[in-house]
Amino acid sequence: MSFIEIKDLVKKYGNTTAINNITLDIDGGQIYGILGPNGSGKTTLLKIISGILPPTSGSVTVNGINAVTGADSIKKFLGYIPETPALYESLTPIEFFNFIGSVFNIDSATLKERINAFSSALEIEKYMNEFIGSLSFGTKQKVAIISALIHDPQLLVMDEGMNGLDPRSSRIIKELLRDFASKGRTVIFSTHIMEIAENVCDTISILYNGNIAGTGSLEKLKEEAGSNNTDLEEIFLRLTGDNDLDTLLNSLKDL
Ligand code: ADP
Fold first, then answer.
1. What is the rounded CA–CA span in Å between residue 164 and residue 200?
2. What CATH number did the domain enclosing 107 receive?
3. Ligand 1: distance of its center to the CA of 226 in Å?
4. Domain annotation covers residue 201
5. Is residue 254 part of a domain?
6. Among residues 49, 224, 231, 234, which is most buried (max CB within 10 A)?
7. What is the domain count for the chain?
8. Is the CB of 39 under 6 A from ligand 1?
9. Which of 172, 204, 170 minimizes the C-alpha distance to 187?
10. Is 186 touching ligand 1 by the criterion CB < 6 Å?
11. 38 in ligand 1 pocket by Cβ < 6 Å?
């Protein structure tokens, strides 16, 4: 059994098909990237996996638990970071983390230990008593990541969570995710930026128009695309067969 099993998944919003019959197994203990241009269905897929959004048909299980009927159970071992995290701008990070700790009923010694460890690993100790609203984009993103990790989840889902970070923050967060996955935990994140998928993920699924165009390590995708080129850009184009190259490639770059 894979950690996440997605079977015949379809999601429609009225006449729009956002997810068009996806079947996918995701093993635990790795960093898994969903790469696709805007509108390809990434957010929809992550929300269904997280039990936030019900599918139109098909099924998803996470650790054997059905994402619709067992959404409450999944929430207990899930950390979810939406594309635009809702942070309380008028709280300080320490107040926010304490608030999350009380929601998850974490005892105060454990909570303190985790807050200290994460704030030190992500280098935000000096901002702990500043208003969240006054912090930089990268620091806010770190606050969002810590708030999603504070209850020690098995699965971390990040929607476009690696975008727009300065190189140092990006490296520090990548190390944190690597450490998290090395403990048998799972990270799934979406991105429309090829470079991020290439640099951070063990496995990449290419999502295009609600379909999976290819899945595997960079090496496996290369093989599938029949390409000797090491470039994910080339692989993406071969697997999706899209001819509107400029539009597509621009949508996959951090412009
Ligand atoms: P991505 O995260 O890759 O940008 P989304 O999952 O947000 O893709 O969207 C996939 C498709 O579903 C798009 O065509 C989008 O316009 C549509 N969509 C997403 N959410 C809604 C919604 N709440 N109502 C109607 N259409 C939606």
1. 15
2. 3.40.50.300
3. 31
4. yes
5. no
6. 49
7. 1
8. yes
9. 204
10. no
11. yes
